[in-house]
Fold each of these.
Amino acid sequence: MSNYYIRNMETGKLELHFDKADYMALSDDQKAKIRSNFLFSRGTGAWISRCKFPNLYRPECVAKELGLEDAGREGETLTFEQQMDRKMEKAERRAERMEYKSDKAHEKGVQLQKPINDMHGDISFFTQPNINSSAGRAFTNRRNRMWDAWERGFEEFKKSDYYAECAEKARRTASGKDQKDKAFCQRRIDEAEASIRGLKRSIKEYEGYKKVIENGEIPKDKFGWELKNLTSEKIDSELDRWYEIMENEIGKSVYYHECIEALGGIAFNKDNIKKGDVLKIKRWRGTQIVKVLGKGSKNISFADVDEKGWGGKCPYADIIEVVKSA
């Protein structure tokens, strides 16, 4: 089997494996579809999908359109905690690469601008008019090349800043800084639990369709439309995928719950916060003193104590302390 695709369970990505001659024989349109959904990995000698499970619908459609054989799965599924550990390890390596590129781009920018910088103070160099002679043209060409290098130096400095920004983001991921923020963790928990609830509804609905099909009838959706193309095999395939997604979402919820517990838990909720309480809350620019205007199951609405009329919402996880009780 020379042309096939597999799902790598460790990375959660789809891999396309081609015989080189068969790949070269593909049309430009087919190659464009591959490049838009996959990246070539020299290490594995395969095309690796840009996205990962559970967002593999489009890459899988491309693989099927190309007539590649489904070779199943490879490797073992990682727990969500293992996925996060792997993500942080990769981020650490990426940060090192970006920092190296940033330093190199900065060095190149300095080198490109050095000839002009060295001429600072030499007024005649910058004011010398163009002279139509052999020496004059040579001087003008040399000065123009120096100015061109000066301009290219700015582009290198921009690259250096870009790589430095990428390195900073990667360092944040590698350090697990987000996992040390209770509000961030709570938002991830809320997302996971919302996804689990949606998956449960879909699973229940499709299990109902399956029973109808087993009874020899055609299932109908909630609007009364007949689902003639739905088969037991399609339902089983979709159920397997949903159960797999649910397992990952449960692992995600557990992981972030453990992160919150490691940070000391969330001390405040709708039961111990009252309307009218004055609170100190965590904000992106530091801390803020606010007065509670209302409360819900997950967030409070507030008005700033010092800035009349200014307000907003924040989760209970962002409350640092109660400054004054109502």
Amino acid sequence: MNKDLTVGNPAKILWAFCMPMFGSIVFQQLYNIADSLVAGRFIGENALAAVGNSYNITLIFIAFAFGCNIGCSVIVSQMFGAKNYAAMKSSVYTSLIASGILCLVLMAAGLLSCNTLLRLMKTQEEIMADSSLYLNIYIWGLPFLFFYNIATGIFSALGDSKTPFAFLAVSSTANVLVDILFVKAFSMGIAGVAWATFLCQGISCLCSVVLVLRRLSKINSEGNIQIFSWKLLKKIAVIAIPSILQQSFISVGNMMIQGCINSFGVSVAAGYSAAVKLNNLVITSFTTIGNGISNYTAQNLGANKYGRIKEGFRAGLKLVWCLCVPFCLLYLVFGKYLLLLFMEQSSATALMTGRQFLWILSPFYFVISAKLMADGILRGEGAMREFMAATFTDLILRVALSFVLSAWTSSAIGIWCSWPIGWTIGMGVSVWFYRRKLPPSP
């Protein structure tokens, strides 16, 4: 059901809107977590390292899909808030066509260059073949990734966060079961892990696109509806391109960091692979709630209700901090047992690596969550230069400090310490920009 985010108590509206989004991203992350879990438990430590190694490259493709999601979602939110339904529908159709073309280009580039990227990350020879196989199958499923993200962005723009949650709950649960079936029953190895994701994400994509098109057909609109509009594409691109660049550079930065991690051996890479999946579950959850804040901000900006934006930031901050507490305690106290889910026959080095990573990062979830809420406001307002500046401050610091501190400490602990430093300074920059760019109350 569509939901107008420009009326009602901001705190109640955001909690009701964002909590299903949080649930959705938890299930979304199950795709990646299931791949690593099944690879580590049923294939071996090398397979776990291979999936983790490939994951950093898949993040580049996810960055493009995420950018398309955000660009479409913000513009559709603004049109929906302004009750301009003809332009809203044109924005949707334009996004679908442009994203499809971009996806084909990325597929071609990915299939031609994935082995080169793996070697640039100093991928060990013992996991090279599995990493390459996993990546190639993943790339063939990119259309499902792109169109699914566009569909969820449209649902969110219309104020509906429950429908994507339902799709993800079913498909992610199915992915876990199919992962195990392909690997254990059919002995497909790392290929089974990749094909399970391909199959389940494909079905979820087709269902969500069909439903979103049916939803749009029921909205009455006046005026000319264009199947493709260069004018609207430009508006979408203004939001999408900085988001793509942000996520892409983060992915490239993570690949550079992965290369540094790989220099410490397969066991350290495997421990990091397990721990970073747990960490990304939290960070991606906060990012998704930040996307909800963007939709909220965009709708209220379209309706010229500027006073509600500041209230939305405070409500979003309370929401993510409430989520920080259980995640932080869970990783600090039970991190060992969560990591063991990924490692049936883990080495002591792999397990200690994962525990150290979680111990160092999890207390700083309160910091990064505040940054992501401020980023959500900036993106919803279209303040993309400020958004990019805050993002690059965090990224550049993390990448540079990973190499400096790991060399100084002669261990991977130096790499883990770079995250909190980058997060803290990046948060300060994001909040400062948010306060400076906040529209005045009428």
